[in-house]
Amino acid sequence: MLIAEDTPELQILEQRMMQSFGVTTTIARNGREAVDLAKQQTFDLILMDMQMPIMDGLEATQRIKQSGNRTPIVALTANVLQQHREQFHAAGCDEFLAKPIDRNSLFELLSHHLQPATNREPVAEPSTPSVLIDDELRELFQERSALMKLN
Known about the structure:
This protein is α/β, with parallel strands linked by helices. The chain has helices spanning about 10-20, 30-40, 55-65, 80-90, 105-115, 130-150; strands at about 1-5, 25-30, 45-50, 75, 95-100.
């Protein structure tokens, strides 16, 4: 799975969440990287943050889809209004997942899109409770804040 996310803490959190489901991930730090990676590699699913530097998720999604890539793309954003969902769909997003990510919604999404291939295990129930993920995220932000104060 490709995760397009510009915030380092969220990259770590989202990657850990996917690992708890047994899903292997590749990280793109912006829309341009996501487009490039989608050209170079085959992914079963793309989680696309909609607000990123260099190229936002809408443009990256459009470019990936215009290239003929049929990988399902899930809009990952805090913008939950219907008008935003319509924009994401018009750009080529297949689904929508609101931030903060609900683990049950994520599990349903992964179960739907990552059906087992002959050589892959089915998506597993999460092995890490969401409370641990929340604690890890809080710790990551505290560490980053402390480092920023030192600089």
